[in-house]
Write a sequence for this structure.
């Protein structure tokens, strides 16, 4: 709002306040509220202005707009609270699952590194025994170069961006710390040339030694390690990103620790992007002090496959995304060098938008619970029967809103593929199809692994409504990932087919219609495999003919497996956004997600300046968009006045318009009501010309900083140019 002078309280109020004389309580008055009559006068003196042509915001489908409009009810605040609680519960589960999945992916690597660290520690401690004086002496023990080598684990990250690996190294440190190791995490900021080797030593002491002095002294660390509770445990130093460290400082740090390694068993764990990073960064005399061992993290695609399976494929959270959103998030993931962090950020924002926009979204947390679905059905039938007395049921107002929303969703579901006239059938089919849909995608992924097809690609294709409606002979369907999986299933060897059917049997346990077929096919494959083993024991003269028979048998079994997979795809792989009541769990507005992630800041600034009253919602500023109030913020007033001009704005005309708008507050003032207090209040003097000019200059500078105008040039010093015209 526009700056206003701080108004002093009446003298009577100051005199009555005897307890707060010594307490300074600063406060700010942003603007003064005008009476309602003045607002009506201001509304009457409206001047016509030409608005800037803003592009339409992210388009919403008519169905979405109707759903949002229908959610407004007499108890809308409580209803929003339900959606907020549902979002908190849903994202808490998703976030916990993501952390567990990423930890599970690296669990084998963590165990391998821990075993290596124990073996390296025992090798360091296996030297000749030292006496107590040598152990407690504050200087290193002299030995040959071979004994001064530090065990170092070079962990190959395979990532172009390091944001994902930061969390991985933190989890690795916590895992090793839980096993009894002393852990110190050093970053590239600790190895900067400005602080030298003293900076990394101080950081090392702060993490290991309690109440450590601010000194870069190795004797302090040595004395700490000789204490009984710290002895006989390895000291592991984790450097998450070796490439970002200063090579000279890191080399000095390695040389220093190598002098103490026989007394202070130090082990390095370093993250590297390539195998030759250490050779490029460190000199040869520092490299000879490192006894390197190589480890490899899982690739970003492996982590992404595990994340997509746990969060998007398995229906455990009551939230999912549509085809366009899935394709956008896949491109967003690949465009950010395959960082899981970028994908999780996009997923969280999609979850936020879904629960804030969709009225039925709070039902998603219970959609897979059969008991909760039965409860909603009972409430729906009861309220349908009691429709004539709804206005008396004030205690069940939230359930009434649910009733109306479910009824409208049922009407909108008429356009869906599996539309139902009955609410019970619609919710029941949604719950069953979600589980079947998940099982079929996992079966497709098991086949796609043989062809190196990623789960995210299969998921994007499974959510595509256009592919589900194509004819089986369509060439586009044959080139799809599903078509490639069917072709791959016909060519699998018998041993791979047996393993594949075992995995299918696990994925289809809850899909009774398919599970029996898989079990039957398993028995056929195993019997044919046993027959082949018996035939291999026959005499050599019949070996060739029997191998041909085995080949024909395997081909027939592969054909049955491919036919079963094709049956599962056509019957159960229906896109989520084609299901009835998909609004409850599916977010598909990709325009809003793209705008929130990538953004259009200049356009958002323009909208905020032109519609500031809709955000501030104060009583003194007029709520009508075409009215300029003197109590509005100066920058907002200036930008609205600029809409009357073209590309060039005359500073004189602009200033006079701003001045007349600001000074109109004196004309709009209404007489105060007569009261004893009003006689003691002095009317504030009118604002000076210098103050108005200062406010004008400040608003112009703010518009320039926002990138909306360009300051005057030497050729036309009295004009400013609009930079963002037409946005």
């Amino acid at each position: 709002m526009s700056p206003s002078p701080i108004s002093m309280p009446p003298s009577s109020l100051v005199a009555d306040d005897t307890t707060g004389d010594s307490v300074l309580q600063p406060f700010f008055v942003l603007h003064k509220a005008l009476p309602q009559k003045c607002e009506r006068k201001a509304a009457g003196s409206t001047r016509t202005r030409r608005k800037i042509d803003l592009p339409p915001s992210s388009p919403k489908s008519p169905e979405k707009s109707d759903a949002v409009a229908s959610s407004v009810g007499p108890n809308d605040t409580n209803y929003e609270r339900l959606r907020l609680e549902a979002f908190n519960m849903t994202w808490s589960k998703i976030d916990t699952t993501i952390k567990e999945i990423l930890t599970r992916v690296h669990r084998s690597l963590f165990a391998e590194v821990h075993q290596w660290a124990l073996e390296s520690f025992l090798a360091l401690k296996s030297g000749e025994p030292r006496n107590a004086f040598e152990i407690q002496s504050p200087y290193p023990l002299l030995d040959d170069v071979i004994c001064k080598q530090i065990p170092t684990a070079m962990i190959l990250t395979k990532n172009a961006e390091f944001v994902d690996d930061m969390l991985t190294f933190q989890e690795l440190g916590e895992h090793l710390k839980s096993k009894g190791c002393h852990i110190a995490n050093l970053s590239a900021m600790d190895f900067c040339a400005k602080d030298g080797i003293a900076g990394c030593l101080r950081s090392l002491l702060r993490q290991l030694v309690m109440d450590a002095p601010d000194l870069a002294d190795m004797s302090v660390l040595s004395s700490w390690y000789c204490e009984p509770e710290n002895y006989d445990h390895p000291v592991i130093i984790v450097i998450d990103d070796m490439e970002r460290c200063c090579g000279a400082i890191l080399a000095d740090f390695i040389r220093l620790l190598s002098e103490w390694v026989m007394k202070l068993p130090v082990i390095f764990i370093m993250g590297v992007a390539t195998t030759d990073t250490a050779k490029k960064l460190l000199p040869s005399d520092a490299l000879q002090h490192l006894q390197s061992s190589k480890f490899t993290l899982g690739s970003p695609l492996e982590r992404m496959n595990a994340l997509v399976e746990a969060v998007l494929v398995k229906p455990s959270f009551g939230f999912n995304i549509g085809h366009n959103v899935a394709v956008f998030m896949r491109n967003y993931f690949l465009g950010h060098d395959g960082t899981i962090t970028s994908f999780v950020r996009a997923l969280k924002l999609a979850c936020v938008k879904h629960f804030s926009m969709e009225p039925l979204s709070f039902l998603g947390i219970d959609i897979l619970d059969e008991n909760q679905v039965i409860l909603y059905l009972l409430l729906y039938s009861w309220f349908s029967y009691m429709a004539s007395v709804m206005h008396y049921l004030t205690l069940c107002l939230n359930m009434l809103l649910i009733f109306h929303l479910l009824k409208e969703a049922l009407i909108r579901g008429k356009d869906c593929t599996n539309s139902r006239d009955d609410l019970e059938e619609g919710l029941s089919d949604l719950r069953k199809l979600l589980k079947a849909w998940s099982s079929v995608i996992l079966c497709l992924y098991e086949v796609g692994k043989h062809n190196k097809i990623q789960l995210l690609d299969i998921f994007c294709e499974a959510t595509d409504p256009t592919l589900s409606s194509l004819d089986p002979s369509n060439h586009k369907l044959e080139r799809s990932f599903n078509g490639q999986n069917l072709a791959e299933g016909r060519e699998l060897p018998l041993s791979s087919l047996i393993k594949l059917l075992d995995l299918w049997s696990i994925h289809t346990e809850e899909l009774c219609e398919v599970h029996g077929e898989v079990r039957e096919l398993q028995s056929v494959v195993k019997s044919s495999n046993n027959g082949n083993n018996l035939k291999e024991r026959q005499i050599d003269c019949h070996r060739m003919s029997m191998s041909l028979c085995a080949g024909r048998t395997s081909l027939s079994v592969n054909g049955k497996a491919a036919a079963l997979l094709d049956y599962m795809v056509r019957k159960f792989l229906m896109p989520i956004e084609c299901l009835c009541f998909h609004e409850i769990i599916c977010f598909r507005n990709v325009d809003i997600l793209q705008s929130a992630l990538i953004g259009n800041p200049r356009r958002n600034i323009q909208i905020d300046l032109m519609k500031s009253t809709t955000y501030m919602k104060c009583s003194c500023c007029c709520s009508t968009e075409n009215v300029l109030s003197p109590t509005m913020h100066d920058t907002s007033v200036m930008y609205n006045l600029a809409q009357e001009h073209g590309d060039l704005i005359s500073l004189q005309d602009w200033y006079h318009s701003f001045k007349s708008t600001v000074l109109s507050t004196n004309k709009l003032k209404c007489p105060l009501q007569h009261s004893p207090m009003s006689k003691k209040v002095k009317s504030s003097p009118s604002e000076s010309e210098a103050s108005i000019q200062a406010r004008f200059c400040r608003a112009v500078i703010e518009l320039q900083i926002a990138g909306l105008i360009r300051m005057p040039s030497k050729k036309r010093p009295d004009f400013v140019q609009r930079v963002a015209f037409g946005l």
Observations:
- The chain has three domains: 36-55+599-669+686-722, 65-72+304-583, 107-297.
